[in-house]
Specification:
The structure is a single chain. By secondary structure, the chain is α+β, with helices and mostly antiparallel strands. It folds into 2 domains: 58 residues, Winged helix-like DNA-binding domain superfamily/Winged helix DNA-binding domain (Arc Repressor Mutant, subunit A, Orthogonal Bundle); 147 residues, Endonuclease, Chain A (2-Layer Sandwich). The chain is built from 10 helices and 10 strands. The strands form 2 sheets. Strands 3-9-8-7-4-5-6-10 form an 8-stranded mixed β-sheet, sandwiched between helices. It has a two-stranded antiparallel sheet with strand order 1-2. A hairpin with a 7-residue loop joins strand 1 and strand 2. It is rod-shaped.
């Protein structure tokens, strides 16, 4: 409904009924514009015309008018959705091949930024999360929110596996992670690897400690299918050779 059509309808509500000249004067619009507006309002079912000469017009009650406007709008939206679906189908037929995802590499400097990226990856995981970290890396993971993110992923049905070196310094954290994810022990781990579906995050720690804010830390993120598949093969081999965390915790 245009502004002039709205003014005509409101003017008619005030008048009750009237001729075109009376309605135009009440609404404050030109007579020619009043004719066009009344014609459109008649099509929408908001006004009714008498069979007298000259023609007289009367508005439908406001509740009926609003209902008819909503119905007209709903019909328009439904038609637009149908046309949009047809347009998508035509565009798909015109598309020669599906778009390829751009392979990206990103260097992340600083442990806090690396943790943010890891948490983002885990939050969007749908199938699996595989992680390798050092003994102190396990402590940092517990402090940096990784444990909670793993728990959320497991609750979504995501498979989460983790390999770390379990020693006295991280025994408490190992017990916490072992309650949430599938955890295994391997000796002398000094790097970080996170695989999430089609993403990989690989880290190298220059100075190994439990601090979360150090800048002496570099990680590489990529969505390269080739790199991710190679890292997945590496993880599966390491997983098969690792020791069950429960057995390691019982023995230590």
């Amino acid at each position: 409904m245009t502004s002039n059509q709205a003014r005509i309808y409101v003017g008619l509500l005030r008048l009750g009924e009237g001729r075109v000249s009376e309605i135009a004067k009440e609404a404050g619009v030109e007579r020619a514009e009043a004719y066009r507006a009344l014609n459109k309002l008649s099509q929408l079912g908001l006004v009714k015309a008498s069979l007298t000469h000259p023609l007289r017009f009367a508005p439908v009650p406001p509740e009926e008018g609003v209902r008819r406007l909503v119905e007209a709008f709903s019909d328009k939206v439904r038609k637009m959705k149908e046309e949009a679906a047809e347009a998508v189908e035509l565009l798909r037929k015109a598309q020669r091949q599906p778009p390829r995802e751009t392979v990206s590499l990103e260097l992340i400097v600083g442990r806090r930024r690396a943790f943010r990226r890891a948490l983002e990856m885990i939050d969007r995981a749908q199938r699996y999360v595989y992680c390798v970290t050092s003994s102190l890396g396990l402590v940092r993971a517990a402090r940096g929110g990784i444990l909670e993110a793993f728990e959320d992923a497991v609750n979504r049905g995501v498979e989460v596996k983790m390999i770390s070196e379990i020693v006295n310094v991280n025994k408490r954290e190992a017990k916490l992670f072992n309650k949430v994810v599938k955890l295994r022990h391997a000796d002398q781990l000094n790097a970080f690897l996170l695989l999430v579906d089609r993403e990989a995050l690989v880290g190298v720690t220059i100075r190994e400690d439990t601090a979360l804010d150090t800048e002496d830390h570099i990680e590489l993120w990529t969505n390269s299918d080739f790199f991710v598949s190679q890292m997945q093969q590496f993880f599966e081999k390491a997983w098969s050779e690792a020791i069950d965390a429960y057995a390691k915790l019982q023995a230590s």
